[in-house]
């Protein structure tokens, strides 16, 4: 039985690790890693394109045009892939943040109801869950 391979970068780590108190910082690191990965891929294609263009100086115009179209398609594909990866990362982050907010709201409501149902009711402890500042209204407010 072979061991499970360890995540290789912050993006893999982010997707393989459940949400916790470090959600936003892990999201930021993964987003930065995605951007670095994309820049490296684009730089590699740019260098390949320059080399191919240098070697294709004596080719007929039609063949050079085909070569240009090939590299343009590669660049477009990389751009689409990067956008898709970033969208997946952002959607995952938003879902995790929303789940954490829902957990906090549920816990606040449970504590509030427990305080009201106590005998005698714990009036002072019923006010903190109702403060607007205790729970952000939007998942984006903690991003």
From TrEMBL:
PROSITE patterns given in the database record: APP_E2 (PS51870)
SUPFAM superfamilies with a match to the protein in the record: CAPPD, an extracellular domain of amyloid beta A4 protein (SSF109843)
Membrane-topology descriptor: Single-pass type I membrane protein
UniProt-annotated stretches for the region Disordered: 1-29
Biological processes annotated in GO: axonogenesis; central nervous system development
Domain spans labelled E2: 10-143
UniProt KW keywords: Coiled coil, Membrane, Transmembrane, Transmembrane helix
Domain of life: Eukaryota
GO CC entries: membrane
PANTHER family assigned: ALZHEIMER'S DISEASE BETA-AMYLOID RELATED, AMYLOID BETA PRECURSOR LIKE PROTEIN 2
Identification of the protein by name: Amyloid-like protein 2
């Amino acid at each position: 039985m072979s061991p499970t391979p360890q995540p290789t970068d912050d993006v893999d780590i982010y997707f393989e690790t459940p949400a916790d108190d470090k959600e936003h910082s892990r999201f930021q690191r993964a987003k930065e890693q995605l951007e670095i990965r994309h820049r490296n891929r684009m730089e590699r294609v740019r260098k390949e394109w320059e080399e191919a263009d240098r070697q294709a100086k004596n080719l007929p115009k039609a063949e050079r045009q085909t070569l240009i179209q090939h590299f343009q398609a590669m660049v477009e594909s990389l751009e689409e892939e990067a956008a898709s990866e970033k969208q997946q990362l952002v959607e995952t982050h938003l879902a995790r943040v929303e789940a954490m907010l829902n957990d906090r709201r549920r816990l606040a409501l449970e504590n509030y109801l427990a305080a009201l149902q106590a005998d005698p009711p714990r009036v002072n402890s019923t006010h903190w869950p109702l403060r607007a500042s205790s729970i952000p209204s939007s998942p984006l407010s903690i991003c």
